[in-house]
Amino acid sequence: MEEWCESMPKVELHAHLNGSIRVSTLLELAKALNETQRDAINFSQMKHVIKKKALSLTEVFHMFDLIHNVITDHSIVTRITKEVIEDFASDNVVYLELRTTPKRNDSIGMSKRSYVDAVIEGLKSVSSVDVDFIPKTEDSRSFISDKCNGNSRKRIIVRLILSIDRRETTEAAMETVKLALEMRHFGVVGIDLSGNPKTGDWTTYLPALKFAREQGLKVTLHCGEIKNPKEIKNMLDFHPQRIGHACFFEDEHWKMMKSSKTPVEICLTSNIRTFSVPSIDVHHFAYLYEEKHPLVLCTDDTCVFTTSLSKEYKYAADSFGLGKWDMLELSRNAVEHIFADNGVKNDLRKYFNSVSKNMEM
Ligand SMILES: CNc1ncnc2c1ncn2[C@@H]1O[C@H](COP(=O)(O)O)[C@@H](O)[C@H]1O
Ligand SMILES: [Zn+2]
């Protein structure tokens, strides 16, 4: 029998596309690459890293470099996207904000634009579930009515967030924001700042982030993944719509975040496996939950951290003594923090209302 955490409808707001690559696909692509271009990838090293229980942040970012090496053409980006959507849908994620860093790679004729086009191809090519990713101009909603009318096909709403990598220059970050604006009609709703927290400086990305906000894009920041009080303060002063992680916060930061009520994307397994939080019993989830601060459970990178959103729900329930109904409430509350328009929000609110009335858990 399916566990409640699997069958419960869920909302995923912090998932990196390439960090969520299907493990079997990663191994298949890495093996093929290893056969044709021995120097491009160290296959045994990759297998070793996938199996490890705990990874330092340095190892995690090395892993991302290994994953990025297998992207040798646009069709691979399309395949990865298609499979990631299928995997989230089969875990009963009903709304997914998928983030990815547009990549330029001249040696394979890839521009940031063509990379994002390949991601959108991936969204279009999913056939096992219905993918709703084009924002609707008029208020024609079908998600709820289709479900209520006995349409048994699974549906998932997907929106995209384009990430700025902390290794990038101001110009490259600006290019990503301009691309996001051009792609709004394909469901791009926001900008994320991510990448190795030990790299780069806040002032480099600030002009692009300000521009994004002026143009009406939503902004989420990886904030406090390492101890860097000055940067955390600067980030909170910027008033992003959401932040991810919030591990190395000091009293002043909690105070700022509580007064701005900035929702936090919580990635339990990621934080524990990278030692950003020493153990689950001291994870700030408990504090924020107790304080009724807006928070959303997320996966970060299902491949790198061998997790799924239902596993994160189970992990939280087991670790903090929460029941199924508490978890359904947490999932339902996530709807309030999505970046998509009010039409989608209302649609999801109605859907969760009908689920909590009808679901026998
Ligand atoms: C451990 N927590 C994390 N902290 C910071 N950045 C992270 C991350 N997990 C993933 N990324 C960012 O997402 C990229 C992979 O997906 P995409 O190629 O963009 O689809 C990584 O290269 C990194 O920049
Ligand atoms: Zn992340």
UniProtKB/TrEMBL annotation:
The keyword Metal-binding applies. GO terms for molecular function: adenosine deaminase activity; metal ion binding. It catalyses: N(6)-methyl-AMP + H2O + H(+) = IMP + methylamine. Residues 9-350 form the Adenosine deaminase domain. GO terms for biological process: adenosine catabolic process; inosine biosynthetic process; nucleotide metabolic process. SUPFAM superfamilies: Metallo-dependent hydrolases. Keywords: Hydrolase, Metal-binding, Nucleotide metabolism, Zinc. The keyword Transport does not apply. It comes from the Eukaryota. Its cofactor is Zn(2+). Belongs to the metallo-dependent hydrolases superfamily. Adenosine and AMP deaminases family. PANTHER family: ADENOSINE DEAMINASE, ADENOSINE DEAMINASE-LIKE PROTEIN. This is Adenosine deaminase domain-containing protein.
